[in-house]
Amino acid sequence: MNAHSYTPTAKLLHWLMASIWMVAWFLGAAAVYMREAWNPHHGLTITHKALASTLLFLIVVRVAWRLTHPAPALPASMSAPMRRAAVLGHLALYAAALLALPLSGWLWSSVAGKPILVLGLFQLPPLTAPAKEWYDLAKLAHVTLAWGTGALVLGHVLVALKHHVVDGDGVLRGMLPEARAGRSPGRGGETAAPEIG
Ligand code: HEM
């Protein structure tokens, strides 16, 4: 554990949501762009919605946890503009990738009059009555958010890798499971410290 460590619950929520998000992204894209070969009976679309819709519940738990368990401090080596960029980037990930994107999918299915079966277990209530006139706009919102947040998440992954490989600080290790997080002290040379986030 190092001074930049998140709590085990925060790590679990982060990696669970990250895995669901990435699988959902590729399922959504495959449903659209491989429709004839892989999605002739809408199986991929149904699986995409069943999985992606769980993010709407997990985000509530995640935000509640985050508000009651502040994130660990960023490394002192980061400049003020970089700190501001990190805070804004994380806010954008929460707001756009984890909230607006699933909400836009929910809206799209609602205006199309199509059901969303969360994990195949129960149905989400529609946000609106079916409305053909809003179909194109809802679709555009979901597709634009899907590609925009795809770029955002890619940037997030690259910045995390830069922290680890180039800066050698504890930022990425602070989000890794315990055994891996404790393996090497890194160039920042942090010593073990109590978990603070
Ligand atoms: C309640 C949650 C969601 C619902 C109801 C939903 C619904 C849909 C639907 C109906 C499609 C079109 C599939 C088809 O035409 O066969 C789609 C496409 C897509 N979705 Fe979602 N979605 C949700 C969440 C998400 C999330 C969280 C992501 C990202 C991780 C995502 C990424 C995509 C992508 C990349 C596409 C393809 C976009 C394109 O046309 O280029 N969706 N979604």
UniProtKB/TrEMBL annotation:
- The record's principal subcellular location, in a coarse class, is membrane
Keyword list (alphabetical) reads: Cell membrane, Electron transport, Heme, Iron, Membrane, Metal-binding, Transmembrane, Transmembrane helix, Transport
Domain Cytochrome b561 bacterial/Ni-hydrogenase: start-end pairs: 6-177
Molecular function (GO) terms for this protein are: electron transfer activity; heme binding; metal ion binding
Q: Mind naming one GO cellular-component term on file for this protein? A: plasma membrane
Which named protein is this? Cytochrome b561
Species: Methylobacterium dankookense
**Transmembrane stretches, by residue range?**
12-34, 46-65, 86-108, 140-161
According to its UniProt record, what is one Pfam family this protein matches?
Ni_hydr_CYTB
Q: Which cofactor does it need?
A: heme b
Decide whether keyword Nucleotidyltransferase is in the record: no
Compartments in which it is found: Cell membrane
